[in-house]
Amino acid sequence: MPLAIEDYALIGDTRTAALVGRDGSIDWLCVPRFSSPACFAALLGERGHGRWLIAPAGKARGTRRRYRQSTLILETEFGSDTSAVRVTDFMPIGHKERHVVRIVEGLIGQTAMRMELIIRFGYGSIVPWVQRSDHALVATAGPDTLELRTRIETHGEDLTTVAEFDVHEGERIAFVLCHRDSHEPAQPPLDAEAALELTGKWWREWSGACIYGGHWREPVMRSLITLKALTYAPTGGIVAAPTTSLPEKLGGVRNWDYRYCWLRDATFTLYALLYSGYRDEARAWREWLLRAVAGRPEDMQILYGISGERWLIEKEIPWLPGYRGAAPVRIGNAAATQYQLDVYGEVMDALHLTLTAGVDRNTRAWEVQSVLLDFLESNWQRPDEGIWEVRGPRRQFTHSKVMAWVAFDRAVKMVERFGLDGHLERWRGIRDEIHAEVCREGFDAARNTFVQYYGSKELDASLLLIPLTGFLPCEDPRVRGTVEAVESELMVDGLVLRYRTETHVDGLPAGEGVFLPCSFWLVDNLALLGRKADAVALFERLLSLCNDVGLIGEEYEVRGQRLLGNFPQALTHVALINSARNLSRPTGPLDRRVQRRP
User: Fold this and answer.
1) Which residues lie below 8 Å from residue 530, measured CB to CB, with a gap of 6+?
2) Selection from 135, 147, 150 nearest residue 179 by Cα
3) Which residues is 25 bridged to in the sheet?
4) Cα 575 from Cα 581, distance rounded (Å)
5) Is the distance from CB of 288 to CB of 237 less than 8 angstroms?
6) Which helix (H) or strand (E) holds 285?
7) What is the helix, strand, coil percentage profile of the chain, to 5?
8) What letter would DSSP give residue 87?
9) Within the chain, what is the greatest distance between any pair of CA atoms?
C-alpha cells in the first residue's frame, strides 16, 4: 500500500518529477516528460506496478528528512540504536537524458541496506527485457530504456532487481538511473558526485534571484522552488501537479489527471513569479500561453499539454487499482473539451498583468486578445461548466460572468493606460452590462450574498475572487456579506470547501476534502476587510498543513487529518506565495488586483 500523500517528497529536473516516500521508495516517476507514461506507478497500486526502494534492511527506529537549503535535493536519514545512514535523492539539471541519482552515505556505524528496483513501463503494465551491458543493468521495452549504474552487485528475484549491501560510516555509494530513448546509444556514465555539486549550485543560484522580502520567507521560497520544479523548461508550461488520480476523497471517483497546464492558473502564477523576481519564468509562461491559445477563439481550451497539445483524451487504466483503492485511474482529462467562460477573463488578466509589470511586449499578444474579445462579445451570455469543471449540466455560473467582466475591464484599461487600439466605448458598455447582470441575477438580496449560479441558493468559494478581481471593492456590503456567508456555510474546522457537493451540481457522487487554494483566498479577503489577525491565524493554520518538507496538496481531509488530491499542487503553492505577500504589506491594497475598480 502506498504511503499517506503527505509522506512523499518531490524531486525533479524541470522536465519531469518523481515522488520519494519517507520509507525510501520512489513510487511515482514518468519519463521522459511529466505527461509520459509512468515507469514507477506503485503510488496508484502496489509495489509490483513499479518502484525503486533504497532503505535499511531492518526497520529503522527513526526517520527524518529535509531539502538542502534553497534546493530540490532531498536528504532522508534513517537511524537505529547503533547506526545511521543518509540517502540523498535528486535529478540533475540540463542533461538530454533524464537521471535519478541516489547516494547512500554512512553516518554512524554500519548499516545493512536493501535496494529493490521494479521497472514497469506503461503505468505498471509492461515488464521490460533486462540485460547487463557495459557495467550497467539495462531494461528496455518499446521506446524506453532505463540503465542502472552502481558499484554494488545486483541480482534478480521474481522480476525485481535486488541488492543487499552494507554501508560504513563515512562511506558513500551512488546509484544512477538513466532514461534514454531505446533506439539511442548509451551515453557516458554520469558522475554522481559532480552532478550533486552542479545541481546544488544551479538551485542555489536560482533561489538567490528571489526578491521576496516579506514574512514567512522559508515557506514562500519552498513554494517557489516547487513551482519551478513543476515548470517544463523547454516550453515554459507549468503543470498543475506531477501526478494523476490521487483522489479528492479516499475510495472515491474524483480522480483526475493534473499533469497539464491550466489557463486558469495563469494570472495567479504570473503574479507569484513577477513579484518574487522571476521575470524570465513569467515571460516564458506568457509565451507558452500565447502559443497554446493560437487558433479560433471558440476552440480555446481550459487546459493544454506542456507543449500546447490539445488532444488530451481521457482514458481509464483498469489494471491499476488506484491510490488505496480510489478508482478509476485516469490519464488525459476530458475537461479539455468543456466550455468554460472564465478562462477568457483569465487570459486577458494574465496578459494585462505582464504589460503593467513591464515585461517585454509581445506584438502578437494584443492581436490575440482582440480576437478573444470579439468572440466573447457574442458568447458571454452562454452557460458553461464553470471554474470547477462540473460534469453536470451547464449553468450561468456567477464566477464565470465575473471573469467575463474581467476580460472587458482589462481590455478597457489596456486601451486607456497604454494607448492600444480598441473599441473602447463598446467594451465599456459590455463591461457595464455584465456587471449589472451579475449584481442583479447572481446576488441573493435576502441573504446578502452572491450565489453559485443564477437563481441558486448555493454558495461557491470562487465568489471570494469578486473583490480580488476588482469587480467590487472590499468595503462593499455585498462583498462583506458573501465572505460572512462563506464562513458560515462552506467552512469545515476553519477551512473552506469549494461548494457543497451534496447538491450534485457537478454530476458526481458527493464528498471531497476542503479545497486549500480557496482557504488562501479567504485569507486575502479577511485581510482586505481589516480582519488582519483572523487572516494571519488562518494563514498559519494553512502553513501547518504543509508536510515536513514544506509541500502541500490540493485538498485536506479534516476528519482524517491528511492531504488529498494530486500532489504537490501548483495552485496551492501559488496561493501560499500570494497570500504571504499580501499579509506582509504594511499598508495599502493587499492584492494587486484590488486596485482595479469597475
Assistant:
1) none
2) 147
3) 53
4) 10
5) yes
6) helix 279-292
7) 35, 25, 40
8) E
9) 78
Q: Answer for the pair 181, 31: CB distance below 8 angstroms, yes or no.
A: no
Is the dihedral angle over the CA atoms 274, 278, 279, 280 positive or is it negative? negative
The pLDDT-based confidence of 181 (bands split at 50, 70, 90) is very high
Interval 128-151: pLDDT, tens? 999 998 889 999 999 999 999 999
For residue 576, give the nearest of 263, 245, 218, 264 by alpha carbon: 218
The Cβ-side half-sphere exposure at 493, using a 13 Å CA radius, reads 13
Pairing mode, strands 136-141 and 129-133: antiparallel
Q: ∠ at Cα 15 (105, 191), nearest 5°?
A: 35
Q: DSSP of 140-188, one letter per residue?
A: EETTEEEEEEESS--EEETTEEEEEEEEEBT-EEEEEEEEEETTSPPPP
Q: How far apart are CA 539 and CA 519, in angstroms?
A: 8
pLDDT tens per residue, range 449-478 = 999 999 999 999 999 999 999 999 999 999
Which residues lie below 8 Å from residue 60, measured CB to CB, with a gap of 6+? 78, 79, 80
Confidence of residue 58 (pLDDT cuts 50, 70, 90): confident
Domains contained in the chain, CATH given: 5-184 (2.70.98.40), 207-595 (1.50.10.10)
For the whole model, what pTM was predicted? Answer: 0.96
Helix (H, G, I), strand (E, B) or coil at 413: helix
The answer to whether the CB of 144 falls within 8 A of the CB of 31 is: yes
- What's the pLDDT score for residue 594? 33
C-alpha cell belonging to residue 296: 479560433
Residue the block writes with cell 554494488: 152
pLDDT at position 587: 53
Q: What sign has the CA pseudo-torsion 451, 455, 458, 461?
A: negative
Q: What number of other Cβ atoms are within 10 A of residue 243's Cβ? A: 28
**Total residue count of the chain as it appears in this document:** 598
Cα distance between residue 300 and residue 310, in whole Å = 9
378: its cell numbers: 457574442
- pLDDT tens, position by position, 206-241: 999 999 999 999 999 999 999 999 999 999 999 999
What are residue 90's DSSP bridge partners? 101
Angle between helical axes of 365-379 and 279-292 (0-180°, round to 10):
50
